[in-house]
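Hi L., both proteins are below.
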Amino acid sequence: MSPDDMWSIGELAARAGVSVKTVRFYSDRGLLPEAARSAGGHRRYGPQALDRLRLIRSLRTLDLPVPDVGRVLDEEDALEDVIAGQLRELGSQLAALRWREAALTLLRDCPAGERVERLRLVGAVTAPPSTEPLARFWRRWLPPRLPARVVSSILEQTVPQPPADPAPAQVLAFARLHAFVSRPCVGNDRGQPAAHRADGGHRPAVLYDGLTEAYALAAPALRAGRAPHAGDALDCFVAAYTRSRGVSDTPDFRRRLREVLAADPRIDHYWQLAAELADPAHPTPGAAHDWLLAALHGDIETWAA
């Protein structure tokens, strides 16, 4: 076709049902290349431009950014990747909107005297909230030089994920948890449990591997509401400490272990807030630890009797 047989920019716009400005916009950005120029230097487009323009309009109707539209037009199989990326972005946006809605509901429904304080707490958290401050807290709290595998496993258990569709009370719990872990000097060496101190001859990596197993064994009893008692979970709990120290499990060791654990610093507030965010079917490590401590106390009392 000669340039005179092709469509002008106005003719293409009319056939597509869009404005000349729209055609020029996409043409200037390389999404709609012209086929030729007229003798007077005006743009000319062939019939294939109409199909391309309609495809561009369809993609833009879905709010795809212009660069993504260009990828779909120029790269084979790009549409699937672009759609996946857009769905991820929309998921994040929806999560942010649900979080904001719950936060606003929390502020609307709370007593007037508490509104300023709650606004301060909630305003310090992004929407959707990031768990990175919680992860940093645990990296400071844990003993140094733990293998990455162990740290990753601990973070997976100890850092609660924000609910996808939070209730106002859960927004408040997460905001309070964020404030707790963001306090100055949280997790300094003076606040570490005794088992974190290398001078005590401990092997923390062995300890935490064992504790993870013990907490998992205790979880069914916690879910069932059973009272703390001796058994496999308690034996695994004690074994985590004996293996980390290279000693034997004896009644005397269990008595000393109870004394050491009773003197350890506690972060009960963290676990109370984490429990409000966690799935009830998955007890927090804090709840499992307390259950096992109570079981250890009962076991020692039985020995003493």
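That was the first. Here is the second:
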Amino acid sequence: MSGFVEKPEPIQVPGLVHLHTGKVRELYQNEAGDLVMVASDRISAFDWVLPTEIPDKGRILTQLSLWWFDQIADLIPNHILSTELPAGVPADWEGRTVVCKSLSMVPVEAVARGYLTGSGLAEYKQSRTVCGLALPEGLVDGSELPAPIFTPATKAAVGEHDENVSYEEVARQVGADTAAQLRQATLAVYSRGRDIARERGIILADTKFEFGFEDGDLVLADEVLTPDSSRFWPADQWQPGRSQPSYDKQFVRDWLTSPDSGWDRASEQPPPQLPQQVVEATRGRYVEAYERLTGTSWS
């Protein structure tokens, strides 16, 4: 059992129809048929959306995504139409809201990996493969791969695990042409992001994208290259053979699995509230990632 510890009631706004509550985002539709996506300060871990929020997280994710969309605009179109607030929405939606194209979404998590860790490492230990792709012997947690690889996953409902699948399975599900486009776009955007992050002293270990189609053209959607969708590691602390320090919610995961939390991950009990020091440390990592990547201060 997992999901939301306390599922929020969506805010009702005249002229907007609420469509979906995700782990982090609320999705609405306006009268023109465009989507209005609002990033909350919610945070998830171990397939639970926690009861404690991280201040500024929604704005950081939104502003960082917008910055990245500009950096990769020559590689692929994106779904952003406007960052202007729709009429009548709460004032605190400022900076966390985007109006987007309504796309025909591809039901695949498009994942690129340049380094071995996470579920990829678990599969590699068993079979020396990731999503069916053979890898060299002798790799360890944090090893850089010979070249970036496309390792797709099926998209799961809130509280469920995404499942890694082979490229051949994606081709069966969405067609060979779409699968080829997904792979090409995913690796192109990952490579651009990796190079930009590297210049700023950050390793982009892996990341995931969501794509949709508009009039037959592949379009990048949702968020892009944020600490929620990517693993960012400080380059000066990279040391293969161990778990790497990261710019994300590792503070949250570490505290939840520590004796201090009193929470048993294997139980069906929801996780507890986060202590203030964990909230502040996690917010600090999100802010640091934003500032190092964009070169601008977070105010």
